[in-house]
Amino acid sequence: MLIELFLLVLLVTVVVLSMRRKPAVLDKPLVIESPGRYHLTLAPQLDRVQTFMERIAILFELECSKECDISGQFFEIREPEVNSQEGRCYLLGVSSRGGLLYFQAIYPQPLLRDTDSHLKQIREFSEAVLALHPLKQQVGSDEAAKLCRTVELAALKLNISAKPLIESS
Question: What is the pTM of this model?
């Protein structure tokens, strides 16, 4: 009788503890800074994309001019490790100010109007984040192209799909 009571108490304790250990859901953007390297602003539940962005930062240091200002480059990212739902993606904005990389990542919102687009969503979010960090002197398209290639190379190395978002004409 004592053994059965002990097992019952143990089972109830395990069940109660397993119900309480739900992962914390972030409700505010997460900001992560690495002084002199990068600044991340991640939407809630996108904290796991940091590894991808760190890879981009490493490759950027090798490829691009350290003191350049590069306007926003925008991507639709499909990363199986982050998005367990089939076909789910997140939007990524990457820019450089004085050699410091700025990343912004959000989940796309439903497109309700004809004027809505994923590019518009990530661009608006990026502009709001970078309002205090305006472009000083924008470099030519060559450095912006290098940044795009850097993102695509980092994605390739991590088996991630990175599709550039461009203006539709």
Answer: 0.77
